[in-house]
Amino acid sequence: MRWTWLNNQFVEEEKAVIGIHDLAIQRGYGIFDFFRTRNNKPLYLDDHLERFFHSATLMRLKPPQQKHELKAIIEQLIAKNNIPESGIKITLTGGYSTDAYTPATPNLIIQQQPVVFPKPEQYNKGLRLISHHYQRELPQAKSINYLMGVWMQEEVKNKGADDVLYYQNGIISELPRSNIFMITHEDILVTPVHNILHGVTRKHILQIAKNHFEIEERDISLDELYKAKEVFISSTTKKMLPVIEIDKNIIDGGIPGSCTALLFKEFRAFDEKESLK
Amino acid sequence: MRWTWLNNQFVEEEKAVIGIHDLAIQRGYGIFDFFRTRNNKPLYLDDHLERFFHSATLMRLKPPQQKHELKAIIEQLIAKNNIPESGIKITLTGGYSTDAYTPATPNLIIQQQPVVFPKPEQYNKGLRLISHHYQRELPQAKSINYLMGVWMQEEVKNKGADDVLYYQNGIISELPRSNIFMITHEDILVTPVHNILHGVTRKHILQIAKNHFEIEERDISLDELYKAKEVFISSTTKKMLPVIEIDKNIIDGGIPGSCTALLFKEFRAFDEKESLK
User: What Rg do the C-alpha atoms of chain B give, in angstroms?
Assistant: First the structure.
């Protein structure tokens, strides 16, 4: 049996329910964050909680608990569930709205589940992306609105791709659940900075990369991306994965590149260090 | 006590709950429709059910019931609740997704509640709108994603306005929950046709209006709208309301106009006729 935190108590996951008047169900309104545990230790929790509170502020929702209270709940949840390698998701909904439109006191859900990371084969195979014209609302908030990402799955599958890359006016931004990076032929690491969710893994990769590459955080056109030397994505659950094809344009001969490999190696070491802190 | 239909049974409204794994809560994924009852008779039910199934198809969700089954449930709900003047909302969620991303068997919710229509004073006062650059995803689907509309409420209030009008690339589309129309100085009724939700009230207004006005369904720029002779909006709960100000541009001297009044009179007669059918 797994436990979930709901508002002010632990409940069995299967009994964790929300009334239909919640603004998440009525209007798709809410925010969340998601982090990993390793050996029952939360990784980069401060980064994730900081972003959680930032998303809440941007979306004008007031979390019922403060940061230190959330930390205490998360600690208890980890102890009760004992899922050493897990993902923990903290969701804050729009709450029970009396007019089904105006946010009310939010509902808070903290769920934990086992997490599966990409296998080395997946890394070696690399990802195929298709691009799609779209821009998330309030991109710096990690809102629960994934309408486009969920909806695009069918097209992604039909086109033999693995995921979708959003762009607007020719400029790329992000994948539904990942950030994107490219290495230019001049060995510069470039990643979008506008209209994206600022990923925690993205932040750490930039931290690591500055010892090896010149870094540019700026707009990237689809055309520039197609011609990159290497491309990769980052996310909490995917960590880092190479991209070998975008809209049928083969990147770097279709084989994960050496710069990505170097960064991934360093990222794993960084991760190891964090988990031993 | 009010009853709600949940999947395959009637439950007390306060006990109508959804598990946290539903894709509405996890990813804001779902669709709905909303119609009125008058003297315990559903109005324009076929129009609304047709749009409900159309939204479901666009969003790749499969309603568990067919149209005639939904009609039978709605009939029972109306009889059980006995709220003669009401709004009934049918919501279809993304269902209990095992990976919190892929749609599953949807949950179906049918809620009924008393409905309050705008009073004559509100009609006479007219609406003040502010414009905002935004385009809904899959605009022809009535999805539950109202992130922008819900979020904009604070700005609308701070600017002393009543609602927000979306536009993109200078072309207007719709309000979060209403369609928009203008009457030109040449007495042509114009309303956007692209990138909008096709409202049932909008459809009936166009039907009525063709006896009185030349009609154009086409793109309208914000600039053209600012200079319109009359502007009004339509929705199931608001029916028709005049707009007297947009981004501080006063429309028609700030007084609801005669063409809008004529159409509203005819709309009420049309409504009356429907409810006696």
Answer: 19
Burial class (CB in 10 A: 0-12, 13-18, 19+), A248: exposed
Distance of alpha carbon A222 from the chain centroid: 21
Report pTM.
Answer: 0.97
The residue among B145, B157, B169 with the most chain A CBs within 10 A of its CB, best to mutate, is: B145
Distance from the Cα of residue A59 to its chain's centroid: 18
Answer whether A70's CB lies under 8 Å from A90's CB: yes
Q: How far is A139 from chain B (nearest CA, A)?
A: 12
Same domain, A31 and A146: no
Q: How far is CA B108 from CA A93, B11, B62, B147, in A?
A: 20, 12, 10, 21
> Which residue do the tokens 């589309």 mark?
B173
Name residues whose C-beta falls within 8 Å of residue B51's C-beta, 6 or more positions apart in sequence: B33, B142, B198, B200
Q: What would the pLDDT profile of A152-168 be if each residue is shown by its tens digit?
A: 999 999 999 999 999 99
Residue B60, Cβ density class (10 Å: 0-12 exposed, 13-18 middle, ≥19 buried): middle
Question: What is the CATH classification number for the domain harbouring A187?
Answer: 3.20.10.10
Residue of A25, A94, A148 lying closest to B137 (CB–CB)? A148
Closest CA to A41 of A91, A90, A85: A85
Give the closest-approach CA distance of B81 to chain A in angstroms. Answer: 18
Report chain A residues whose CB lies below 8 A from the CB of B99: none
Instruction: Provide the residue type at A51 as one letter.
Output: R
Residues B170 and B234 grouped into a single domain? yes
* pLDDT tens column, A69-112: 999 999 999 999 999 999 999 999 999 999 999 999 999 999 99
**Which of B60, B150, B154 lies at the smallest CB-CB distance from A23?**
B150
Query: Among partner residues A26, A111, A151, which is closest to B59 by beta-carbon distance?
Result: A151
CA distance A39 to A275: 8
C-alpha distances (whole Å) from B210 to each of B187, B243, B257 are: 12, 21, 18
The count of CB pairs under 8 A between chains A and B is 132
Looking at the complex, report in whole angstroms how far the Cα of residue A135 sits from the nearest Cα belonging to chain B. Answer: 9
List alpha helices for chain B, DSSP H.
Answer: 23-27, 45-58, 67-81, 120-125, 147-158, 200-209, 222-226, 258-276
Assess whether A136 and A233 both reside in one domain. yes
Give the domain extent around A203: 120-275
- What's the average model confidence in pLDDT over B81-91? 98
Q: How do residues A16-32 score in pLDDT, each as one tens digit?
A: 999 999 999 999 999 99
Q: A144 to chain B, minimum CA–CA distance in Å? A: 5
B78 and B200 share a domain? Answer: no
Q: Between chains, do A20 and B93 touch, taking CB under 8 Å as contact?
A: no
